[in-house]
């Protein structure tokens, strides 16, 4: 069967805005990410107070935009013509300075450090790529390690490393060392290193001292084979399949969106799109044009990934500590990869680089870290066929086209595809796709029949001598919704079943009706999904529609997986922000990272769960919604040697926000095939 090369062309309609340029022109915006010039300036300014360089034990762990004052941003934004001055532009820096974590705020206009303090609590800042690479070099030169490798009959030059944070397991000393655990893998015939772990070595590197602080070898020998781990097309051998036809989405008039600096305008949407080394994509000031009132209305002040939690379920020596907080430990932006045109993102996509500071403060760049594209996946936006009227048949259909901002974060073995999708109907969908390579454990077995009675493999045999270890993925988003303004409330609209009253003349025994309750405090707004039928709506109680309904946006959750570790288990204490699927907190510019600002070796004392304990008032307040997308992952053989994408997500959907269907008057668009093709079935 020869694969067919059939090209499908779709013609896209561009909505309100005309086709536009595909290049970014620099425009000042309070949410613009720090530029290379600004990062260099940060380095120069900091160096005046704290000499930078290897001898000074001063390293940059995080450099990002200092969250601008929200009220200043809003008045600047609402002035539209931008005659009001934007808030001062500042950088927030977390540095390691002679064994301490130092927080600095650097102001660009005064070219000065305007805030300077030492972090005194638990936890350490994000790891830099640079120090993880340095740690690898240190271990490769470490004599005891090299001896162990030789003793095992292995070749040092075939060994590669990833690093793992070590977590916290109840240690009570005030200060622990800032250490990581180095995990060796063996190439020798494969590039799929994660499938060939070298087990039984404990290698701890102190990052501040940059030296091996502990080394142990329990000399286990099992290692999965390299054979069968290949995934590069160029190296795989025929037969290939299943055959897919080439598909190209063509927009003869160019993309229907416009990018001005970092501001994206498409159809009825306008938002700012940025990159942060910890969060990845940051969406801000998203507003939607309402034809009825002829203006843009605010929806999302700021939305981004806040934290991820990936605990593995093997409690033994080589595995117990694998309980990552990926964004706080490794940086979900720092781990972003360059996206491939036409495969990671479709034709017509445009790309944005990710700029961040390396450990010595010099700017580093991830080219094409974010892409933006229009998506048409054959879905229907709305339709109706009317066949009941004599002598008249009506069919009205509008295809569903949306705009997607995408980033792929590859944290070691896993690739996370994070999509922010905007729909003309007013919905915003957040999508999370998991793909990449499993984290596996070598075993002596090749078949389930060999497993001893009562032995828990903590996973599935997915290949010869290879167990894919059970684990979870929890992906937490911070969503500062501002529905038509900042003063919002959270309404839990329960659907309650009623028995029909005896007095009503009906054969029906039951019905359901709505019972809305506004959450007064944070405690009222902690939601475990799936326990009752309820709609969760963020409303603006000061704004009502013509018919008296409060304008709002509803949360449409995706499939739900809750954490099932015990609450007193250390990883769960650190990741207590996953204890509920939904939380609401009052806006606080310091409460951004659900697992705490200092996630590495954190002790759970600065999590969303702790902030929520303050039980602050949240009615008619500027509120923030937190939502966790969860997956329990029992690996299967299909996940080997790479894993087909597993997807989850959720939707924020207008609810009495508009007076009527906002896409009613969308002109019909024809997604015709430009070239007439006869599909060849063979
Ligand atoms: C930091 O300042 C010192 C002294 O002024 C200078 O010699 C050095 O080159 C500067 N380092 C960087 C990285 O700018
Ligand atoms: C800009 O907007 C402000 C407030 O909306 C208004 O007072 C001012 O007249 C406008 N200026 C110009 C030049 O349009
Ligand atoms: C070790 O690996 C390197 C390169 O990967 C190779 O050149 C060398 O011959 C190997 N040594 C042994 C003893 O196998
Ligand atoms: C590798 O695996 C393939 C089948 O997947 C098999 O045909 C081949 O013999 C194996 N090669 C080795 C060296 O084991
Ligand atoms: C804001 O958050 C920080 C960190 O959680 C906290 O210390 C501070 O008290 C909070 N401010 C308010 C007004 O709640
Ligand atoms: Cu998984």
UniProtKB/TrEMBL annotation:
Keywords: Copper, Disulfide bond, Metal-binding, Oxidoreductase, Signal, TPQ. Pfam families: Cu_amine_oxid, Cu_amine_oxidN2, Cu_amine_oxidN3. It comes from the Eukaryota. Residues 249-664 form the Copper amine oxidase catalytic domain. Gene3D superfamilies: 3.10.450.40, Copper amine oxidase, catalytic domain. One of its GO terms (molecular function) is aliphatic amine oxidase activity. SUPFAM superfamilies: Amine oxidase catalytic domain, Amine oxidase N-terminal region. The modification 2',4',5'-topaquinone is found at residue 414. Contains 1 topaquinone per subunit. The active site is at 326 (proton acceptor), 414 (schiff-base intermediate with substrate). It is an enzyme of class 1 (oxidoreductase). One of its GO terms (biological process) is response to putrescine. Topaquinone (TPQ) is generated by copper-dependent autoxidation of a specific tyrosyl residue. Its cofactor is Cu cation. Residues 29-116 form the Copper amine oxidase N2-terminal domain. Residues 125-220 form the Copper amine oxidase N3-terminal domain. Residues 1-18 form the signal peptide. Its EC number is 1.4.3.-. Belongs to the copper/topaquinone oxidase family. This is Amine oxidase.
């Amino acid at each position: 069967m020869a694969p067919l090369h059939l090209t499908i062309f779709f013609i896209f309609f561009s909505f309100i805005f005309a086709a536009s340029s595909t290049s970014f022109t620099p425009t000042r915006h309070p949410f613009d990410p720090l530029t290379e010039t600004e990062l260099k300036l940060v380095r120069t300014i900091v160096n005046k107070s704290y000499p930078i360089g290897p001898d000074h034990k001063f390293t940059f762990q995080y450099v990002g935009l200092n969250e601008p004052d929200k009220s200043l941003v809003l008045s600047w934004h609402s002035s539209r013509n931008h005659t009001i001055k934007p808030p001062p532009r500042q950088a927030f820096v977390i540095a390691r300075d002679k064994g301490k974590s130092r927080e600095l705020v650097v102001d660009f206009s005064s070219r000065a450090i305007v805030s300077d303090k030492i972090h005194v609590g638990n936890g350490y800042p994000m790891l830099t790529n640079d120090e993880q690479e340095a740690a690898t070099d240190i271990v490769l030169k470490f004599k005891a390690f090299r001896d162990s490798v030789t003793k095992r009959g292995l070749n040092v030059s075939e060994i590669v490393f990833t690093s793992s944070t070590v977590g916290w397991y109840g240690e009570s000393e005030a200060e622990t060392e800032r250490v990581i655990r180095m995990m060796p893998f063996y190439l020798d015939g494969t590039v799929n290193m994660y499938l060939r772990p070298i087990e039984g070595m404990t290698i701890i590197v102190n990052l501040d001292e940059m030296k091996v602080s502990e080394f142990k070898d329990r000399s286990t020998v099992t290692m999965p084979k390299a054979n069968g781990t290949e995934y590069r097309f160029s190296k795989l051998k025929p037969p290939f399949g299943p055959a897919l036809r080439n598909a190209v989405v063509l927009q003869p008039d160019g993309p229907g969106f416009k990018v001005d600096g970092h501001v994206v305008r498409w159809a009825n949407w306008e938002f700012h799109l940025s990159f942060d080394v910890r969060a990845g994509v940051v969406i801000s000031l998203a507003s939607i044009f309402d034809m009825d009132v002829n203006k843009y209305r605010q929806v999302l002040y700021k939305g981004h990934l806040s934290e991820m939690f990936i605990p593995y379920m093997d409690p033994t020596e080589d595995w117990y500590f694998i309980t990552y907080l990926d964004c706080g430990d490794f940086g979900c932006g720092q781990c972003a990869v360059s996206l491939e045109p036409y495969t990671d993102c479709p034709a017509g996509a445009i790309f944005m680089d990710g700029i961040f500071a390396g450990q010595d403060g010099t700017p580093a760049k991830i080219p094409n870290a974010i892409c933006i594209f229009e998506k048409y996946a054959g879905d229907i936006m709305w339709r109706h066929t009317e066949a009941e009227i004599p002598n008249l048949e009506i069919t009205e259909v509008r295809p569903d086209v949306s705009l997607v901002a995408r980033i792929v974060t590859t944290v070691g073995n896993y690739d996370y595809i994070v999509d922010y999708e905007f729909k003309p109907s007013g919905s915003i969908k957040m999508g999370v796709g998991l793909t990449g390579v499993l984290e596996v454990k070598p075993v002596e077995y090749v078949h389930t029949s060999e497993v001893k009675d009562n032995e828990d493999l903590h996973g599935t045999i997915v290949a010869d001598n290879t167990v894919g270890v059970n684990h979870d993925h929890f992906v937490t988003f911070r969503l500062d919704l501002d529905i038509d303004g900042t003063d919002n409330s959270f309404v839990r609209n329960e659907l309650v079943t009623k028995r029909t009253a005896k007095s009503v003349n009906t054969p029906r025994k039951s019905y359901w009706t709505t019972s809305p309750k506004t959450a007064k405090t944070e405690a009222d707004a902690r939601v475990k999904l799936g326990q009752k039928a309820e709609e969760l709506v963020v409303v603006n109680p000061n704004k009502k529609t013509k018919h008296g309904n409060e304008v709002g946006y509803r949360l449409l959750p995706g499939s739900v997986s809750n954490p099932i570790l015990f609450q007193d288990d250390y990883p769960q204490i650190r990741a207590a922000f996953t204890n509920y699927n939904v939380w609401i907190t009052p806006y606080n510019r310091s409460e951004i990272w659900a697992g705490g600002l200092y996630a590495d070796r954190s002790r759970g004392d600065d999590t969303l769960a702790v902030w929520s304990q303050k039980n602050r008032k949240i009615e008619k307040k500027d509120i923030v919604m937190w939502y966790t997308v969860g997956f329990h992952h029992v690996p299967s053989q299909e996940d080997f040697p790479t894993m087909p994408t597993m997807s989850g997500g959720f939707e924020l959907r207008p609810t009495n926000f508009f007076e009527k269907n906002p896409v009613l008057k969308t002109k019909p668009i024809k997604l015709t095939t430009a070239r007439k093709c006869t599909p060849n079935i063979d």
